Task: structure prediction
Amino acid sequence: MTPENVMELAHRMLLVTSMIAAPLLLIALIAGLVIGMLQAATQINESTLSFIPKLLLLVLTLFVTGPWILRVLSDFTRDLYASIPTVVG
Result:
């Protein structure tokens, strides 16, 4: 196994991980900012007020992006299994 193969595999792994995590992290970030601004404007400091909407938005995002996430993961896994002979041999 050459160092180039290892680096390419690590690069693809990090890219897939970033692609999968990006939608959820962006939605959580945007929701947190909006809810934080609303809490600051109304001076309501309730922890459940920020937790419940974020949770609902993340579940909705998973429902919307779930098929795409599974497709990205299955394509990466299929490519990984197909590249085993070149990586090992």
